[in-house]
Records
---
Amino acid sequence: MNKKRVYSGIRATGRLHLGNYFGAVKGMLELQDQYDCVFSVVDLHAITTPYDPKTLKQNVRDVVLDYLAAGLDPERCLIEIQSLVPEHTELAYLLSTIYPVSRLEDLPTYKDKKAQYPKYVNMGLLFYPVLMAADIMLYKAELVPVGRDQEPHLEVTREIARKFNDMFPSAGSGQVTFPEPQRFKTPAEYVPSLTGEGKMGKSTEGSYINLTDDLKTIKKRLAAVPTDSGELGGDIPATGGVATLFTLLQILNKEDLYNKYAKDYRDKKIRYSEMKEELSNAIYEELRPLQQKRAEIESSFDLDNMIKKHTEICRQVASQTLKEVKQKMGLT
Ligand code: ADP
């Protein structure tokens, strides 16, 4: 790995949805040709919220399949399963010793998850951003293609990198151990929820459309998006279900449809059932090639062999970083 490095990961909590695709995977696709990229299925992050051990392996497999179907090319990037590279957790522990607990307790994702699962507030959940920092820093990544919701976690990563570099300077060379990674932004860095509240996310039922959804399912999911009477007029709302419908048209680059329905909205004659029908078709049109590719990969590609090879390469790079960190921390 000689070029600028890129790292990103998606939790193994189910199939990928439009938010993951437009907010993260599109960025990965853009970067895989220019840089040394590691794209991970972060299964250790998936077990910090309630999950079923029986389906976790299948979830991991589904994310890998979705990655490949979306166009990640195992010849041009490394695909990693986080738990197969134990250096992640070891580095996370080492980094946790230089970071304050109080800062982690203040992070929005921790607070949200605490509210969502009040009976499942575990150490791993609090530790999540430190593990995420370790994920990125293990590969000394400089660019991280993730959605806007991950910005606070990236800030933590930069803080940890800065602190490590200050506390454990490299002797003589003047070169710091860790770069301060930047977020690589996609045009759709925030895909709103179908419920009209917050972001599209795997853990909020009714909020998402999966990349593997067929047309009937997409229509059903969009039918549930809350709208208004269609007679309000004025500016298109910035939040709520109607805003989500318009945002999805924008994300899909359906400018003509967007303009048509924006005019109808202003003229107080918008028909949401028709808009949802056209939006469903546009989404399906985008997803159909991915679904065809996924079916081909599922029937012919040797996933296990690819993972085995990629894990070996990832561990070589990871173990070098870990060795350097331990030396600098005086542990060898
Ligand atoms: P989820 O929130 O659905 O559980 P993850 O936490 O695994 O998904 O996030 C995986 C990646 O997808 C991250 O880069 C995250 O920023 C991105 N992502 C998730 N939801 C959205 C969204 N609604 N809009 C934009 N990006 C998103």
---
Amino acid sequence: MKLPPDVSAASFAAALKKFETIVGKQWVFSSDEDVALYRDAYSPLWGEPEERVASAAVAPENVEQVQAVVRAANEYRIPLYPISTGRNLGYGGAAPGYSGSVVLDLKRMNRILEINEKLAYVLVEPGVSFFDLYREIQKRGIKLWPSVPAPGWGSPIGNALEHGAGTRRDHFATHCGMEVVLPDGELLRTGMGAVPNSPLWQTYHYGFGPFIDGLFSQSNFGIVTKMGFNLNPEPEAVRTLSVSAWDYDDVVPFVDAAAYLVSTEVSKYPAGLVSPLMSGPAPDVMALMNRAGGAAASDWNQLGRDKKQALYSTNMRFCGSARIVDAQLETAREKFASIRGVTFQEGPTYRFPTDHSQVPEAVKLMFGIPSLSSFAALSMQGRIGHFFFSPSLPMNGEQVLKANRVFHEAARKLDYYWGWANMTDFFPKNYTVLKDFDVGHDPAVNRKNRDIFHQLLKVAAEHGWSEYRAPAAFQDNVMDVFSFNDHALRRFNEKIKDAIDPRGILAAGRGGIWPKHLRGKQA
Ligand code: ADP
């Protein structure tokens, strides 16, 4: 059995006994077999001494038990790592960021506390998954859609706290009100939740005074035990419009049009910016990508014409009342039509309500129906896992071209072909690049991919771009990039950490924030 660092075997055994008295013996997991289930199957450090692994896990059933576990952890100095459903694959899975931590597994806290159909919100506990929420909504015949990520098996709380996104973009931005157990075991409610018995907890997010909710995302300042989220009323219709541009230099007006449609909230679903021509390692494309000094726009245009592949494409989706959807689609057409040679392809119009059992897999997410088909696609490629290099870029065509050029050149020096990366506007006014690197069980391959990641991160920072999210193995490196004024941001985070978690028991290292006793000691 692995022990938490600096904790004796006797003390750890006493702590586990204490946890057992709080949650029941069967909800404390310490056998190698059980603890192995909390390994990150996609760890970029898989099987290496630095892989982040748990010492045990404890699964409380309610808030009082969470508080009691936290108080016991303080008493015995046991590092804790809270997870909701632990499905954060590609960004850490269920594994802690600090080896030897006890995973605080909140899966048993899986109650949907309220669904308000008229005001379109839900209040959930951490163990509620997107599937649970969807099923309950269906069971009750409520006409609301959750925003779901692909794949849809995580939880609204875990995903939002990671700054995840889904079919209706930024999940943290859709939350309203939290309940949090602080590192000393105290219970806090944010926003209107601080007003006893307020009916406004899930409808007015500021409350009064500083808006502190953000402090609990990508951080280690508390354990979220309840959180409210906005849902989307089922629309009358959904329509889709795919738009393609055929000139290399069109990227600027193309992205400007897409950004305008986001700013005016005509485009409510994330819409990718893909290059049917330039993505993928076709030999003729690679030859142009690798040409010394870069290929001319005219060469790309010629290749696109020869292969009948557009330079840029986006897939826009519109939803709402039928009249609004028609107007949105027309607005989008008009906006893109000023780009010479642009082509449009309309998809089918979907009408609601509809029989969900008949919805094709490819459009499930769009209708708020969680699906695991993206995993099936991955395993079909024979891959074990992946991690992402996922920098954010402003929604600006020049930046898109520049980033692809810069990353291509940097990767080339490491013998890795970048080419062109597709991206998505998960967050309004930003594109998130999602370049996935294989994770397997061969440390040499994983090490090489980690080296490429580190190099790309460095190059990105030189241009002011950074990751929006990262697995524990990279979180310190990512936080290093946020260095304005001698790392004022990290120093501020550390001051908060020291004040509210003086024993440093909660999620050490998460968000690049280490407790005082471990600061500077991490590799
Ligand atoms: P998912 O919803 O994808 O299963 P996870 O449960 O894996 O998400 O959570 C992702 C990360 O968010 C965790 O590794 C943890 O650091 C943090 N986290 C998740 N749930 C909580 C929570 N209830 N309180 C505090 N942090 C949490």
